[in-house]
Design brief:
The protein is built from 14 helices and seven strands. With 373 residues, it is α/β, with parallel strands linked by helices. The radius of gyration is 23 Å and the shape is globular. It binds S-adenosylmethionine.
Length: 373
């Protein structure tokens, strides 16, 4: 089915996994449930509130436009804040400054890069924000967490956001609000690399889904917010990699893929043959004098067209996999005494990592299990 798609149809389906799921449901009937199972509430209160929560451009020095809007949308979705905030992996504190300005409550940040800490504190001082960023490794064993603060994390990767879930719940923080990303960055796995869920309920369930931590990359593989130029460059490089792949298999007489490192964008300007020479050098391979680069480039373009069509199917499982991860987090927080909301805090076009897990502590002392992190 996917093989017959035209380029235009393929372009349309790349950003429409729900439509793709409908087509694929002819072969895998469970996919008819796709929209129902992946649909989530919008947690954004509406445009006027989002604009009110977003730092005005004149105060957003050093803040990329998209980050300014993401921080504003995140702040708006949290509604009125009851507590001072602790911004986990804060970078320069774009979210901290947005939250402090919007809520009139103090914000503290934890960030381990001293340069970002310095720049963030300078920015906060310059604009008179009630923000203090601390140079802190959030994975440190002796980490101390201020009580009665609202833990927030915007796009802290993998174990970093899982650490806030665990340490924040163990410290009985009154509220935890997290927009997760890069799920695959984890040490939280078995020795065979199988990802370990957080919640007792999911762990007790004899789960048929046992993803390898590398498989979790799929959940964040999309370029929906990349500018057209970056998308075009990514496509060219994929075609070249596949072209070189065909060439190296022919030269070596060995039908196996060779992993290549990432290459400098400068190489793109030098053309396909220069790319092949670079790749061959990396793999200590001699290319024959008479290599027909036009032939192998055409081969790469053809293979890329096929791979792109097969990837449409793979990408149908991207959001379900992400939700599977985040629902485990939600159940974990419920087990720790929180009431949890899960939804989108902004449009996918602003960031595809637009899920917000917002947990308010409702009861009891935290049930501390031994930490795997
Ligand atoms: C993807 S950025 C997100 C930054 C910020 N939350 C935002 O949305 O702009 C992740 C940040 O985590 C920081 N980081 C990575 N590992 C860390 C650790 N172990 N402790 C503290 N910060 C860390 C990085 O330096 C980086 O600034």
């Amino acid at each position: 089915m996917v093989k017959e798609l035209t380029d235009a149809e393929c372009d349309e389906l790349v950003d429409a996994p729900g439509v793709m799921a409908k087509h694929a449901a002819r072969f895998l009937p469970e996919l008819a449930l796709y929209e129902r199972l992946t649909g989530l509430p919008e947690l954004s209160p509406g445009l006027a509130d989002v604009v009110a929560a977003t730092l005005p451009e004149v105060r957003a020095t050093d803040m990329p436009g998209r980050k300014r809007e993401q921080a504003g949308a995140f702040a708006a979705a949290l509604g009125p804040l009851q507590h001072a905030t602790l911004d986990w992996c804060s970078g320069k504190g774009h979210l901290s400054r947005t939250l402090a300005a919007h809520s009139q409550k103090r914000a503290e940040g934890y960030e381990w890069d001293p340069q970002l800490v310095l720049s963030g504190n300078r920015l906060a001082a310059r604009f008179g924000d009630s923000v203090q960023i601390h140079c802190q490794d959030v994975m440190a064993q002796n980490l101390s967490i201020p009580g009665a603060t609202h833990g927030v994390a915007l796009h802290a990767c993998g174990d970093l956001h899982r650490q806030l879930l665990r340490r924040g719940a163990a410290a009985a923080l009154p509220r935890l609000s997290i927009s997760p990303c890069c799920y695959h960055k984890t040490f939280h796995k078995t020795k065979d690399g199988i990802y370990k869920v957080l919640s007792e309920r999911a762990a007790a369930y004899d789960n048929r889904l046992k993803p390898h931590s590398d498989d979790l990359r799929l959940a964040v593989r999309e370029t929906v917010t990349a500018p057209a130029g970056v998308r075009a460059q990514t496509q060219t490089l994929s075609q070249w990699r596949l072209g070189f792949d065909g060439l190296q298999r022919a030269v070596r007489g060995d039908d196996h893929y060779l992993q290549l490192p990432s290459c400098s964008p400068r190489l793109i300007r030098k053309g396909f043959s220069a790319f092949c020479h670079w790749a061959a050098e990396k793999k200590q391979l001699r290319l024959p004098e008479n290599t027909d680069f036009d032939y192998w480039l055409a081969h790469g373009i053809q293979r890329h067209a096929e791979v792109r069509r097969y990837e449409l199917l793979r990408h149908v499982f991207r959001r379900p996999l992400e939700l599977w991860m985040v629902l485990d987090y939600a159940v974990y927080l419920e087990e720790q005494g929180y009431r949890v909301r899960l939804g989108h805090f902004c449009a996918r076009s602003l960031t595809p990592r637009n899920l917000l897990l917002d947990a308010v502590r409702v009861c009891g002392t935290p049930r501390v299990r031994h930490s795997h992190l």
